[in-house]
Amino acid sequence: MTRGPGNVVPVAQPTRAPRVFRSGQANQAGDTIWIYQDSLETRSSPGNEGGFTHQDGSFQPAAWHIDTIYGCQGHAFWCGRVDSTWVLDANRYGYDNNWTQSLSNFVSLTGAASPVKLSFRQQLGCESGFDFASLEILDIDDGWLQLGQWTGAVHGSGVPCDTFTVVIPDSIRAKYNPVQFRFLFTSDIEGSSSDGLVPNTDGWSIDNVTVKAGINDLRFFDDFEFGPGTWTVSTFPAVGDFWRIQANAPGEQICTSNTSKVWNVTNPATNSLTSRMDDKLISPSTFVNRADQVFAAFDVYRNLPVNACFYYNVQFRTRNAGDPAWSLWTQASGDVYSGNEKEWMRQTVGLTGAGGKDSVEFMLDVKDYSQIFCGGVSTPSGTSVYFDNLALGVIGLAPPTISASEEDLFQDTYKTTPFFATDNFNTPRGDTASVRLSASRGLKVASFFYSLNGAAFTSLPLIPFGSALPTAYSADVPAATYARGTELRYYFSVTDSLNAVVTLPSDALAASHYFTATILPAIQSASGSCAGNTANVLYVNANEGVDGGASMAQSLAALGLRFDRYDVNAPDNAIGNAPGGSPPGDPIRHWPAVAASTLGVYSAIVWDVGDRSSSTIAAEDQQLLQSWLALPGGNRGLLIAGDNLAYDLSVNGADIGTFLTCALGTAFLRDVWEDVPQDSLLPITKGAAGTRIALEPFPLDGQCPNLNRFDSFQISSCATSKTRSWITYPNSTLASVEKRDSVGVVADSSRSVLLGFSLSEISVNSRRNLLLYRTLVNEFEVPGCYVATGVDETTTAAEPRARLYNAAPNPFNPSTSIRFSLGHPARVRLLIFDVSGARVRSLADRAMPAGEYRLTWDGTNDRGRPLASGAYFYRLEADEQVEAKKLILLR
Question: Does the pTM of the predicted model rise above 0.90?
């Protein structure tokens, strides 16, 4: 059907006010119409679930079986199956996504002469570089060892099958007899016969498996003409459907609260997710009346650390009147979602491709992805995810939309030769940048605009991926070897049939705001103070992702420093695309590593990982930084920052063994800087005595919605004589440690400073600038190349003008006394907040002279009504200074 401005699909407007969700965020306004909403408050499991259905998808059939469909001659063992629902695959047979299928056997090698050779014939068709076939042998000390691995297409010359022969190491058969071996086939989350994204993905077949010792001592042979014999195939029984509606689901939220009913998918026996789970929650069918845009929204509580390997995704399917069946399920985003915020948040996911359909169902799929991302090992303990206030919204007449995952955008690199394909501008996922488009009124033009080194923009058409992913489009820069310093600016543009234009970034045309990627090191502008055209500081933005890190870049520029910026795309996803590159031989991640010698042009590196508590810095990045710190030929200074960085290295075991303790001279003390009752979310740290920042105050902001309590350190015994305190918390525990060392015969300095907080959590820009200047310029001796405008070196350290003390008693009932002092006259507000962030009481809001004050709170709100038992925050605001602490009210 054709639509225009006068032919908008009529949908009745809701009469009730917009719902406010647990996250505190109201539904979207404008022409958004919420046609389905369920708060679950009138629901219960199992008999009253509001039309929702749920199922366990963890059962996986054993794919290895003897067949003649895809073999060498006669019968062969084939890892594959025939499935008539794989309508996007030409022959309807092959393999599925998310497979880990093994075929194993054993052979007795008692008295066998060397060499012992294992050979077999094989035929393989799989997605090259992402799905793999491997031969492995069991070492009783080290586990399964790989003897061979294949990907893509493997065939013989002029015949279907190829022959492979390998020697079984004598060291293996000396340990244990019989020797066990297996054939292992693994596939990732897309690109198989089931989704049709890659042609000729027919699976793996093996035949004529032979083990021969010496010259003629045949120890094993099987051509599979007489059945399965002693072969064992992997089986994956169902682990259970755990979806249920539950009130008061256990959680650790502080900034938000939810005591209502929610969808819970944890195992009731453990209150955690379950290994190998794949539990799907499907909404009731909703009539969307062929609206232009459709999207799902829900509140979600997440305790899903990346390294635990449990994720969820949103899928949907559609149906028009007269269709014999529902469409296939389509994943609504290129992302699987993780996060351990332990807070309720509102999430909206566009169902691109659902526009123009009569009815829609959406699905929440919570799954163990360890076979794909974590080497087969998941960590279920403590994991949980809950959903509430599920809704479906539509926009009747909508402009086009365009979106992208950070993993599908171009990224900075040091590689000066092509990789992945024909050029060296690539994304962490491959050669081309990819976006998702929606133009329900008709697509007129979809374009990729790019500019190299400041030249005029050139337009290229966005290329549709195909029927398997109808909303996906891609583009690439021309094939070339791009030299060091080449800067790419780019954006995407979509025009629909009514000439409505949207871009990504959205302000590309209005504000000349573009995505960028650079072949590093960049070409720097001339400076009378610094020779050459190379930066002497590298800033690694491993915190804010694509288009982030602007505030830090402004600070470094204001300090007069020449710096390069390396943005890590999607840093929370741990996809191995930081400077250290992906792990060698990793079947999923393929980003090229930077050599330490290449980074030798820099005198200092600033590396900020933000506040995530897992996957903060990979082993490859740790090794790179250790090697760089030890490079002779110049001073080296590393400033590395992040709340939970030391926690991840120490508690999560992410350290390579010596990075935290020896390279950084630090021992992890605890994840919370403060002693019990841990109530200060706005600590004012100070430079340690005897340092260049002695007594300088550096205020931190750890308040909601991103609650942070900051890591606390000790000096490591690995480097005691070379290490000192750099910054301290108010209780004198260490917020930062500096290690001072030397390199080479000319005694170049090698220094590192570890911060227990992110640089973005220093709440006053001038204070952050001062810390950076004193650390990089003064301590690391990095020369400024331009005039410094962002730091006032004449400013002396000053005590804060106001101070907030611990309330007493605490916990309290019926009242407590709150004491604070003012060093100077100030406009003062003393406010009480509940854990959701809502203000419940104002105790003071007026100008006050200098002095000490004591105010009483009786546990009531501004209307005089008693408040419930629980945690509250009291916050002092004195001019520009803010400090907060926590109270417990017990009724």
Answer: no
